[in-house]
Amino acid sequence: MYCIRKVTNDLLWIGGNDRQTPKFEAAHPVPRGMSYNSYLLLDEKTVLFDTVDRAVQTQFFENLEQALHGRKLDYVFVHHMEPDHAATLGDLMIRYPEARIVCNGKSVNMIRQFHCADPNHAILVNEGDTISTGRHTFTFANAPMVHWPEVMVSYDSTDKILFSADAFGTFGALNGVLFADELDFDRDWLDEARRYYTNIVGKYGPQVAALLKKAAGLDIQMICPLHGPVWRKDLGYILDKYSKWAAYEPEEQGVLIAFASIYGGTETAAAILACRLSELGIRTEMYDVSVTHYSYVLSDCFKYSHIVFASPTFNNGIFDPMEHLLRDLLHHNLQNRKVALIQNGSWAPASGKLMTQVLCEMKNMELLQEPITLKSALAPGQEKELEELAQVLAASVKGEASTPVQEPAADKPKGFVCKICGFIYESDTLPPDFVCPICRRPASDFEPVT
Ligand code: FEO
């Protein structure tokens, strides 16, 4: 049975929704499913705009056959070769061998690499090229790295529609709705749209900005992405979100507390900090990164202006889930945030220094103060340090910051670390007869903390 929705008088949505595969790209949980959009234009020539993921191929081919209603398929525009859109291109070309693939040169190479079809008869298009299908004329524009290098978009200058590939997509299945104005996008979909953007193309902000610049020169009345709802009203809303995300600008002034905790000491400190911030009227969100999938935490790191990372020391390093999160933020180019740190270590706290080192690899991450150090749990009276940190964060969120700003790189030696077990002897000098209280190694096995 077919499941089709009309987009315009001669454009149909013929994609599919996958509500069973638990993770998109084998990485990101999609508890609300995933849509794979494909569109069919019924002009003098027929045009298919991308195929779909294998997970929904049965529905897609039934939709396509119904939508064509006996007509031949003339063109298939390949905007993006990632298999969530091109895995069924080979099957399509077996079923509709007369169709001509329209793509750019980079896609031809990928069609060969994925062995999905014979690209020898493809119509190659470059930036600014046009194809007329009768009433409609399409212009092509490259959008490299939004999200792969071969990505291109096409613009229908007749109906003012941008076929935007991955751009403006979201996680989530389309449960009968097709248009963003048929649902409460801001309330029910924005979080998943942000999580999709940040995890899938968040690394490529400058390239997204380049696409937005090209789009700004066009009269766009509708955006048809390859995932999620179609935009035909209030386009400024989603364009504004993309503009912020691409520039790594926070959407909201507030504090995200990302913590990891093994026996609860770090969690207690994080929870007390959250209480003090809330009492100061600061919008605060917190995640246990050992429990919450990193894709959600990364998404909120893009959302909020301030982030507190709180982590135990583990095997002389950062506790694994926190290290994974920090590396993921680095790889997604997160930048322009104000941060604070809480480190924990029962005998040799080192996670503060190590988290600082990762933050130093990111652009424009500003440490508001020295890390707070816990030794197993909050010591008596240490709540005062959390209260002071809350005040520093609140002042910064409100733009009242008068605290001295410390660059992450300005970490000074504070003692000597045992190269064997990581114990830190906190002093300016190390006695020559010193013996490590943990592993009993001599002073010669120590080195200055850097
Ligand atoms: Fe939806 Fe980059 O694929």
Automatic annotation (TrEMBL):
Flavodoxin-like domain ranges (all copies): 255-394
Give this protein's Gene Ontology molecular function annotations.
Answer: electron transfer activity; FMN binding; iron ion binding; oxidoreductase activity, acting on NAD(P)H
Cofactor section: Fe(3+)
Q: Which SUPFAM superfamilies match?
A: Flavoproteins, Metallo-hydrolase/oxidoreductase, Rubredoxin-like
**What Pfam families is this protein classified in?**
Flavodoxin_1, ODP, RUBY_RBDX
Question: What range(s) does the Rubredoxin-like domain occupy?
Answer: 413-449
Q: To which protein family does this belong?
A: In the N-terminal section; belongs to the zinc metallo-hydrolase group 3 family.
* Name of the featured protein: MBL fold metallo-hydrolase
Q: Which organism is it from?
A: Flintibacter hominis
